[in-house]
Design brief:
Blueprint (H helix, E strand, L loop, with lengths): L8 H6 L13 E2 L13 E3 L4 E4 L5 E3 L24 H13 L14 H5 L6 E2 L16 E6 L6 E6 L2 E6 L9 E2 L12 E5 L1 E5 L2 E6 L6 E7 L8 E7 L3 E4 L7 E9 L2 E2 L6 E6 L4
Parallel strand pairs: 11-18
Antiparallel strand pairs: 1-5, 2-3, 3-4, 4-9, 6-7, 7-8, 10-12, 12-15, 13-14, 13-16, 16-17, 16-18
Length: 280
């Protein structure tokens, strides 16, 4: 979903003001139309400011760097959040480990982009994260550990709407992770799934943005927003669009999965679409 979005160096300059330290967001969620992708039940709370994601096996600090875990939540003011350059983020992980660690662990690190995106809560934005598990999160803009290979002045970071590359000298937040196997082969769901709304007779055209590492895609359709009740209508689609000519009249939900020889991703965020009625 997220690694396909890029920002050019010129456009990056326009975002500098947006990525400065900021005040609290009022998170918005759409649980009535989008299923939770990181439900609280997916995490084991160790009671020490850490949680383990049972889906990935990764252990995360619940607080951003600079915040303090007080036994029940993180520091509750945005002024307590510390912003780091990319090099500063890597040094912060080293500093935590060299000064006794956290929660009895001394192998904390900055996550890679795919590990960061495993925390994205698709039904919420500003920030796109489960704030019950990660309380007092004010933004989704966090450094990853990965430099941008085409320009040594840039590195990857995560935002609400994707993973992008940005100047290493910029100041962003840091959330540390440890344990598990580093997620390098995680296949992310396709993003920006769009289904046509009455544009074509007797069919719906579904389009999406490709996923890094995907070899083909599956298209799923359902009569409601629950993907567990959806049926697969196509498989081994090697392009990023599909014409569903078997769609019934009326509105349907559409999901797309990315697949390769290791398996398929989770369901994408759905979109609804419907065919045009044939003139009588």
């Amino acid at each position: 979903m997220y690694l396909t979005s890029l920002i050019s160096p010129g456009a990056l300059a326009c975002l500098l003001a947006l990525l400065a330290p900021m005040t609290s967001f009022a998170q918005s969620c759409k649980p009535e139309s989008i299923p939770a992708t990181t439900p609280t039940s997916q995490f084991i709370d160790h009671g020490d400011g850490t949680v383990t994601d049972t889906k990935t096996g990764l252990m995360w600090k619940r607080c951003s760097e600079g915040q303090v875990w007080n036994g029940s939540t993180c520091s509750d003011t945005s002024e307590s959040v510390v912003f780091f350059t990319w090099q500063g983020a890597l040094q912060q992980a080293q500093a935590v480990n060299s000064t006794g660690g956290f929660a009895g662990q001394v192998d904390w690190r900055v996550p890679n982009p795919k590990e960061l995106t495993s925390l994205v809560e698709e039904q919420c934005f500003e920030p796109a994260i489960n704030i019950t598990v990660f309380p007092t999160t004010y933004t989704s803009r966090y450094w990853s550990s990965s430099p941008y290979v085409n320009d040594s002045n840039f590195a990857w970071y995560m935002a609400d709407d994707g993973v992008f590359w940005y100047l290493k000298s910029a100041s962003l937040q840091v959330r540390l992770v440890r344990g598990g196997e580093q997620i390098d082969n995680l296949l992310l769901p396709p993003s920006n799934v769009k289904a046509s709304d009455g544009t074509y007779s007797e069919r719906v055209v579904v389009t999406w943005l490709g996923t890094v590492g995907a070899e083909d895609y599956e298209i799923w359709r359902g009569s409601n927003a629950n993907p567990g009740e959806a049926v697969r209508v196509a498989a081994e689609v090697t392009v990023t669009s599909y014409n569903d000519t078997t769609v019934p009249y009326g509105s349907s939900y559409f999901w797309v999965k990315a697949c390769n020889n290791s398996g398929c991703s989770d369901f994408s965020v759905p979109d609804t679409g419907y065919p045009a009625l044939i003139p009588q």
